[in-house]
Amino acid sequence: MTEEFSKILEKALELPPEARAALANSLLESLEETVDPSAEEEWNQEIARRIEQLDSGRVKPVPWAEARRQIAAILNDR
């Protein structure tokens, strides 16, 4: 890590969570050289499907702490 990188990271970590998330998203998007329009449309359809499942009550959200516990249990079983 360069000193410049360390300084930028330090400043970024001082941002509120919402701003850090937006920054992370912007950085990730900057790595994408091209966007596949069909993949973008498929993701939009998947997002709409999941929102509909939540809205209809067919799927119940899981709190992050519980999801993290379940993921850790799966990884520990491997």
Q: Could you explain how this protein is built, in words?
A:
The chain folds into 2 domains: 1-33; 36-78, no CATH class. It is 76% helix and 0% strand. The protein has helices spanning 3-13, 17-31, 37-56, 64-76. The relative contact order is 0.05. The model has no long low-confidence stretch (mean pLDDT 92).
Poorly predicted ranges (pLDDT <50, ≥5 residues)? Answer: none
The run of helices and strands is HHHH
Radius of gyration, whole Å: 18 Å
Mean pLDDT figure: 92
**Oligomer category:** single chain
Overall 3D form: extended
Strand percentage lies at under 5%
Helicity range: over 70%
* Main pleated sheet: none
Describe the structure concisely for a colleague.
The chain is built from 4 helices and no strands.
Task: Lay out the secondary structure.
Elements: H1 3-13, H2 17-31, H3 37-56, H4 64-76
What are the defining features of this structure?
mainly alpha, 4 helices, extended
